[in-house]
Design a protein that fits this description.
alpha/beta; Rossmann fold; 3 domains; five-stranded mixed β-sheet; four-stranded parallel β-sheet; about 40% helix; elongated; binds zinc ion
Length: about 375
């Protein structure tokens, strides 16, 4: 994370607790977990604080010399932490960036300074989010910044409890959860709702973002899917056709809400109770009828004669392990090549998740010597 040392640390001397916290922060910077921002004057004067270790002083000098490269980074992040003297944790907007003010003494506990946690509903969701963060760094031309984070799976519905633990222990944590929405205007799923309920303004070092689609699979760009399921033509043909039919509407209207794991068929649509999900999909059906698998008969009679075995696929189910294989493919790619895959149907999702994951995870390589 980008940690800004506030000029008020200049004033009267630091307490021994604050000095201990400063040591922790500088140790974490040395490991490359975070980046430090501050005025040259402050870095110089902190170097004179009595009782600081030699390594901490060296780190202050080094960080002080590297301030110019951080100018662009200040605007590339969605959030940064500003470390000051007193008070609690407050967040305010500065030039479109959420600046979370945290008192220096907060960091006296070593675990509050280590790499930020990227918390997903399971570890592969977190791993996908990390790749989105890496991609975002490339988009913002932050090539020298390294992603430094810990990937944790919250265990599905237990994610909110896990998130609360990090928040209460004062650890840096960014949590990404599926919206589980099946249509625009549909209410978010239980896991997402429970996680959002755990957000606290005065403990903003832990933050959560809910996706605006069904599941993580919906955010996978089509060109990535093509690479991952190479040879499985029936599935891919339908994604491509789906996108073609969807052209001219706000990007990814139907694609965001299909079930990539189980597939989405006409029987599922007709089975929806009255409400926004049913009306959205019935409206969409009128355009999706020309999909090769959709039998007109099923649509017009509002019931599939095959019942639960309805084979009128809007989208066929993808092969197992789609997410693992996608993350595996992405992790071996350069961010430049990843950027060639991200399309206008998925870009918004990548920006939304990638920007916060990048903000929590931006760091650098360890300092040697
Ligand atoms: Zn059918």
């Amino acid at each position: 994370m980008l940690l800004e040392l506030g000029d008020e640390l200049l004033g009267e001397g630091l307490s021994s607790e604050e000095r201990g916290a400063l040591e922790q922060i500088l140790y974490a910077r040395r490991r490359g977990y975070h980046l430090l921002l501050g005025s040259r004057e402050l870095f110089r004067s902190l170097g004179d604080v009595a009782g600081l270790s030699t390594r901490a002083r060296e780190m202050l000098t080094k960080a002080g010399e590297q301030q110019t490269m951080k100018k662009d980074l200040r605007h590339a992040v969605t959030h940064r932490i500003r470390i000051g003297r007193g008070g609690g944790c407050v967040t305010r907007q500065v030039d479109g960036v959420s600046v979370i003010s945290v008192p220096l003494r907060h960091f006296v506990e070593a675990e509050r300074c280590v790499r930020a946690v990227v918390l997903g509903e399971n570890r592969r969701d977190a791993a996908l989010a990390e790749q989105m963060g890496r991609w975002y760094g490339q988009v913002r031309q932050m090539g020298t910044v390294r992603m430094r984070c810990r990937l944790i799976g919250g265990g599905g519905s237990a994610t909110a409890v896990e998130f609360r633990g990090y928040r209460e222990r004062g650890e840096l944590c960014i949590c990404l959860v599926d919206g589980d929405v099946e249509a625009p205007g549909d209410s978010i799923g239980d896991t997402a709702r429970l996680v959002l309920r755990e957000l606290r303004q005065h403990e903003a070092w832990a933050h959560a973002v809910v996706s605006r689609c069904r599941e993580a699979e919906n955010t996978l760009p089509t060109r990535l899917l093509e690479v991952v399921v190479a040879g499985k033509q029936p599935t891919m043909g339908l994604v491509t056709k789906l996108e073609y039919l969807d052209t001219g509407r706000p990007a990814s209207v139907v694609r965001d809400y299909c079930d990539f794991k189980e597939g989405t068929n006409v029987a599922w649509i007709l089975d929806r109770p009255d409400g926004p999900v049913r009306s959205f999909w019935l409206d969409a059906l009128s355009r999706l009828r020309s999909l090769p698998d959709v039998r007109d008969n099923c649509v017009t009679s509002e019931g599939c004669r095959d019942g639960d075995d309805c084979a009128c696929w809007i989208l066929r189910k993808f092969p197992e392990n789609l997410l693992e294989r996608s993350v595996d493919t992405l992790s071996k790619m350069t961010p430049e090549n990843m950027d060639r895959l991200v399309c206008d149907k998925t870009r918004e999702h990548w920006l939304r998740a990638g920007s916060v994951v990048f903000s929590w995870s931006c760091g650098t390589g360890p300092t040697v010597g």
